[in-house]
């Protein structure tokens, strides 16, 4: 193997290792540091299905809909204040 092939192999390996590390970090932050918070999303801004009449992200019809949720930092949901009250860890 010549030096050019070795350099290309080294760069490729480094990119693969870096990509795997970033993918693990992103998954951990979504699962480990976030939680669903109900009743805080604006119309069309929910993170996933919000009950009957909705399909997935962005499909809730009303501001602060009680069965619509958004991901928030873990432990902060009930601190979120809206005109209809605070966020909830369960559907309202």
In brief:
This protein is α+β, with helices and mostly antiparallel strands. It has one helix and four strands. It has two domains: 32 residues; 58 residues, no CATH class.
Q: How would you describe what is shown here?
A:
By secondary structure, this protein is of the alpha+beta class. It folds into two domains: 1-32; 35-92, no CATH class. The chain has one helix at 3-32; strands at residues 34-38, 69-73, 81-82, 85-86. A two-stranded antiparallel sheet has the order 1-2. Strands 3-4 form a two-stranded antiparallel ribbon. The N and C termini lie far apart (65 Å).
List keywords for this structure.
alpha+beta, 15% strand, 4 strands, 92 residues, 1 helix, two-stranded antiparallel ribbon, 2 domains
Q: Which residues sit in consecutive blocks of at least 5 with pLDDT less than 50?
A: 13-29
Distance linking N and C termini: 65 Å
Major sheet: order of its strands?
1-2
The shape is extended
What is the number of domains? 2
The number of strands is: 4
The averaged pLDDT comes out at 76
Query: Helicity, in percent?
Result: 25-40%
SSE string, helices as H and strands as E? HEEEE
Class by SSE composition: alpha+beta
Number of helices: 1
Largest sheet, strands/sense/barrel: 2 strands, antiparallel
Radius of gyration: 21 Å
Taken as a percent bin, the fraction of beta residues is: 15-25%
